[in-house]
């Protein structure tokens, strides 16, 4: 049995198609089919059900898949260990950033990493925090900057890099603009402008409202904090934003503290707690730890 046969099998199962698996692997489709049939003959079991419109694992295939993944992970881990021993940092790095990540100098961080490790190919993905966390757990991402709420991300290691108060941002002429603070109940009486579901601050707001038994009514949402500032400035609602996003716009918008409870905008650098980290990923974590500090 060869490692490529295991790779072919996993690709077919994940893509549910020999053709799509071959395209993903950049090999000819007949080669994928013949290698898997060869492995099935060697094992004496049919691993794939080819009778339907989509290819699916048989009972034997389902039983065998965890061992195939473990074998490939073990080989990958061995290669990583040897690379680390040799002091090599190469290969690829998949980095995720939360859609509303305006408080972290991501571009500068990636540029610094590229200058230090020019042979590493960097892939950047922007998405809500819950999708990024799922990508880290699945192994699709190496590291990600995600928003975190009150609970630590399940199955992930994380290092907090931003911890800022959230404020209610509103037009200067709003009746609440002169207040020192606004309660959560008062805030939720207004049309709210928020970051999308799955972002850390939105999750924290939802959890606070649920805990207090206060209905949350979001009338508009946007992934770009700048867009929320513009909407609030024009009197379309009250925006829930990190304090720096409001402060940097000066007199255009007023920021009022949200009390009882105080909300925080937190961003963390996260990576899987279950998978071995590549040398490139570890180098990025080390660089980020040196450059970024909680604000």
TrEMBL record:
Keywords: DNA-binding, Transcription, Transcription regulation. GO terms for molecular function: DNA binding; DNA-binding transcription factor activity. Residues 1-58 form the HTH lysR-type domain. GO terms for cellular component: protein-DNA complex. It comes from the Bacteria. The keyword Repeat does not apply. Belongs to the LysR transcriptional regulatory family. This is DNA-binding transcriptional LysR family regulator.
